[in-house]
Amino acid sequence: MSGLDTPALVIAVIGLPAVAALLTLLTSAWPTVRRWMGVLLALGQVVLVLGVVSVFDTPPSERAAAGPLTIAQLETALPWMSTVEPPTRLAVDGLNLYALLLLSVISLLALLTDLVDGPSRAGLRQTGIFGVSAAAAGFLLSRDLVLAAACHGTTALVLALVIHMGADARPRRPAALSFLVPGLLASGCLWMAAIWCRSASDGLSASVDALVINVIPSGAVVLLTLFLILHLPLVPLHRWQTHSCGEGAAYSGILLTGGLWTILGVSGWLRLGLPLSVDLFDDVAALLRIWGGLSALIAVAVAAIQRDLGDRLRWACVGLAGLVAVGLGSVDLAATSGALLLCAALGLPRASTLCLVCWLPAETGGRGLALWWGVSVLALTAVAGFGGFAGLLPLLTGGSHAIGSVVGSPVGPTAWPVWACLLASVALVGVLLAPVSGIAHREQTTTMPWPLRLGLIVAVGVALATGWQPAPVADWVVSDVKRILADAPLPTEATHQPMDEQPVDDPEDAP
Amino acid sequence: MSHPLLPEVLLLLLIFVLAALDAWMWPRRQGRGFAHAGFIGLLLPLTAALAMWGTRAASGLPWLAIDPYYETWRVLLLTIGVLMAALDAGRRPEADDGAETTLLLIAVGGGLVCIASRHLLLTYAGLEITALALLARSVRQGHMPLPPLSRWLTAHALGAALLLIGIALFALGSGDVSYDALRRQEPGPTTTAGGILLAIAVCLRAGVAPFHGWLAPLTRRPGQELTLILGLGVVPAVAVMARLIADPLIGFTTLPKLLIIVGLLGATLGNLLGLVQRDLRRLLAFALIIHTGYALMAIGATGGPDAHLLHLTVAALALVGLAAATEFRAEQITAAGLAARRPVLAAAVCVCLLSLAGVPPLLGFAARTRLLSNLAEFDEGVFVIAAVNVALTAWVFVAASGRVLFAPRAPQPPPPARPERTAVLVLAAGVLVLSGLWPAALVDLMAACDIVP
User: pTM of the prediction?
Assistant: First the structure.
């Protein structure tokens, strides 16, 4: 099976969870049927994404993209907003492939974890989980900014509903609203930027492939940068991380938010935002470095003084987002690839640990729980041997090299964000490991629900596997990041052709 | 089944039949028989209109334009009529007044006349028929307090006067006030004054800020009546405005810019008032002011009819859905905490509110996208101001839906809904969701509507 003749797979990756959501609604009256059907369909989605992975051409050596873009594979056209305009395109590339895999696994885990929240409104939550999965897949696959914004907004809306539909006894409003407002704001930023860019170009297509050959208004670049910052999250726009994953949210909502939201933003920005920001590359990069470094320091300091375990963890997640921002702003192949790898590797550990801490009663502890906490924290803080380390190491080394090459010395005055990252990453290990002894010395009064335990096992297993064998994921990412950062010479409109019609270079035809 | 005026003929027949039935059955009017008859009867023209939608038939009549633009409006107006008739049928058991159904049909017919008209006098007649039918229906139905009645009448009379003066000024110029004759006129001082008066008169009918004063007191009326007035009174006026700007007044280059200013003013005012509003019924009125503002901006930007058509479609469907979902009473209605008692009802209310907010995956998102695209190509400054307004609108209606979902349980449960109301609610919410998920078909149909036949 060739990687170019199976575009139906891409449609199926979106369509299957959408159909699953509909079927879940229809079978709400029969909980057993609904649950088993949900699990089977979620497994089917994992299999589908594995199929996409199997047909993915790594590295995409034969193909070229028009400008600093990721190389699209399994392309398919979709006349979504209008049939008379150029159709929107869905495609897989090196930057969304791992995110798709993560999405399918987290959707399955969320479905299982949802059992912890009990039977009340479980049907609606399951519908929401599949809705989030379909919309997020649409966002990840879209190369059209308007469609991406629509899918992003849908994801935010449905995810807020899933968070909201937690247990009745807990306060739910702050969690859902804290997530929804910045989520929709990020969607709005992407949407406005899409319309602005489209009007500045031919006025017809909002596809990144068409927009990249035009001059992009600086206001649109600002909006795209804000989209990323809202997603990471950076202080002071961090409330969705510290509030929506907190008290009152549904476990499935926490899992989806903690595992997906940041990687959606980073992958989306790298695929759709960064190629359009090349004219203001330096300014955007400097902003990300400085903001990310400051945010990481502040978040780690705040995390260190938190007495509540959940607050400490959530602030630590904000600190980790600062590291990712510095990596993205370093404009270096190693650092930017490392930032994406770090972000992808932290998805599962962050999601499962946030669920664990949300469940963990204050008086409960024991050696088993302490062990789980310790291992999860090690995976989350990207220590050596876990998947995050394969991202953190190139992030730090690449970042210091890139900034040093700009100012002439690796320890120059603008290198401080990298040093801040180094300091923050070391401090985070201590901040999060400190409560281990406290948990171990508490008496064990209750056992961890099996879905949470399963989530932790999967998260730690994946972190270990990608920590010892990071090459496959890195291979997907590096070639596309290299292409974007190389800032390939932009072709003129006259020479721009769709990729399938790209002429084959023939030395005999050369003048 | 292919004559372009078939839906109108069916509608006319239905009005006569219902009027006759009303006269004949006067002593025995119990139940909801007339409302059901009106509902089923309106379905006939709607079905015929849907079958003919997009076929590009020509009327052959000089004063009536049976073009794709009119066909789209016909479908929309008949849909509103059908849904309102279903709401009528879903009211609590009471004396069934056949006159109310007849007046509803007359209002729909008047709307169709003014949208199709290609003669200023016919436009005037259509607007008058609609407004008078709605006014008579409201007066018959209940206890209209004096302030809203007097304000509405004043605005109505003022609008009629301005419209007639404007027509007279145009007639002074050429003696003929058909659209074809007006298009050939050179803009002069008299005709410019006439054009401005026409625009003001239509804005007055559409309730656009700063001519929206008559709308506010009406918000004390029950939601169904308010929606009827807004849906059938305001919507045709906007269609007339689009037709006037694109066809007979095309030579008046200042009018589109004026419309954009008025539209921006309306949207901004509606948003600012909506920010502090908790009463859902008043929010409906502001929703229409905001959406009419957006529609006027789309007309002024002259980037294609789909933007203003989509906005009014969203507004009409959402308002009808909200009227169906909520049992409006005289006191303040917030619908806060509705989700705790009636989750399905709350979900439908949220779909309508979020569609007004312009949030994906609902139809409002497609409407906003088309509007902002047109404005971005028209002028960057206008685009930025409109974008801020769009964000404010989203905030207003997302916050309203947040209150429905997140507020504590309401002290008194809402009364049970009848099947007719539930059907209207499900239909409106379903159309908003489905057409929002895949807007291509609707957008293409609306974008292909040529205003000038």
Answer: 0.89
